[in-house]
Specification:
about 20% helix, 17 strands, 2 domains, about 30% strand, four-stranded antiparallel sheet, 5 helices, alpha+beta
Length: about 240
């Protein structure tokens, strides 16, 4: 019987194999025919080191293989709120992107010269990637599309590898029904003067000093462009 030794994992014995067949015809028109696929895949059991007769791979087979490769794959159909832009609920790589309309938020500061209070905030784009929260700003107060411009966030404590959440307890799972919890954690933490925001024509202290406890609208002119929503999703794909 054929076995394979994987370091620190003990011995493994092959029990199934996938066979991938490709058309052998030299006729390019035939190979590209929509009536007959170019590739054919069959699944075979292995008994006593011998590959047994197989059967065409079914959707159920693919699903079972995916569960083996990605144990955290979702098996339950869930409701996804309109605010969700993208959602990848896997255990070894989880990501969720959503947006929040513009509004007014209670904000807390540990920065000299800035008081706590309520201030206007722009529409905001959030992303949770493997438990780390990332934030961007939006100028338009509508659900973003792939080509929608996104901007550097006007908030303190936002770094390239995510936001600083202090000692706050973050959700254990990436759940599309818990976006409000992430938002409350972000705005409920005290902003310090670490990693000041990248803005145009204003400093972070000037921006929030002029907005706290006023009825002013958020000044979108101060937002500095970062890229587009597509750039964010492309970056998430690379980081997998």
């Amino acid at each position: 019987m054929l076995t394979t030794n994987l370091a620190n994992e003990g011995q493994y014995m092959p029990v199934k194999t996938l066979m991938v067949y490709r058309k052998t015809s030299d006729n390019e028109l035939y190979r590209g025919s929509s009536s007959s696929p170019e590739f054919y895949i069959s699944l075979h059991n292995i008994r006593d080191g011998v590959v047994c007769e197989g059967h065409p791979v079914s959707k159920k087979d693919v699903y079972e293989l995916c569960k083996l490769a990605m144990p955290g794959i979702e098996t339950v159909v869930k409701y996804v709120p309109e605010s969700i832009i993208s959602y990848a609920p896997f255990s070894k790589y989880s990501a969720m992107v959503w947006w929040m309309p513009a509004g007014r938020k209670s904000m807390f500061f540990k920065i000299k010269g800035l008081k706590n209070g309520i201030a206007p905030v722009p529409a905001t784009l959030f992303a949770v990637i493997n438990g780390r929260l990332h934030v961007w700003a939006l100028k338009t107060d509508t659900r973003p599309t792939l080509t929608t411009p996104v901007y550097f966030p006007p908030y303190f404590n936002v770094f390239k590898d995510g936001t600083c959440m202090g000692n706050m307890e973050i959700p254990a799972k990436t759940d599309p029904l818990e976006t409000r919890l992430w938002e409350d954690l972000f705005f409920g933490s005290a902003f310090t003067n670490e990693s000041p925001p990248e803005l145009k024509r204003l400093t972070g202290e000037e921006l929030w000093g002029n907005l706290i406890n006023t009825k002013k609208k958020f000044p979108a002119f101060c937002l500095k462009k970062w890229g587009t929503l597509k750039d964010i999703l492309d970056r998430l794909e690379v980081e997998k």
